[in-house]
Amino acid sequence: MAVVSPAPIARFNRWLAAARRAGAPLAEAAALATVDTRRRPSVRYVLLKGADARGFVFYTNLESRKGRDLARNPHASLALYWDATGRQVRIDGRVELVDPAEADTYWAERPRASRIASLVSRQSEVLSSRKRLDAAFRAACRRYGEADVPRPARWTGYRLVPRLIEFWTRREPRLHVREQFEMTRGKWKKTLLQP
Known about the structure:
By secondary structure, the protein is α+β, with helices and mostly antiparallel strands. The chain has helices at residues 9-21, 65-72, 100-109, 112-120, 130-144, and strands at residues 3-5, 29-35, 41-47, 50-52, 55-61, 75-82, 87-97, 155-169, 177-184, 187-193.
């Protein structure tokens, strides 16, 4: 039986906080699945940087493989698993770019070395020489000194606007609890799924 439920985003944030309290390493690490133009899937981890009523935010390079995939097919999935709490969450939806001001704010909060690394890295391109990359990083450190490191236009954030969120809780003997929330006519509809 399906019932209308309150927004599951608050529940997600409670589960994430519980995973952190339980000592889950990198609790915000989320597997991001995209599909290219030839319908070939690709998955990799990103760090989730926020979840609110607007969606789930992560940052990356627009020119990376995931950036290219999302430019051509803006549908994606995120999955987070926390063994420490016996829970996982799966999120499907459509991605959109965050507002440039939001990307600027997060960029300014990042450690300086991470900003410089993002500035010099051409993420997902073939690396002809690690020495050249390391030299470019050191040169950028010298060039910027204590000055502000500008956010490159190719680096920004994505917001996955969810249409489906599944909460999974481990239960033995493999009778896991699966609760699916689907956005229907502007409201979250809850359905229980077989384990």
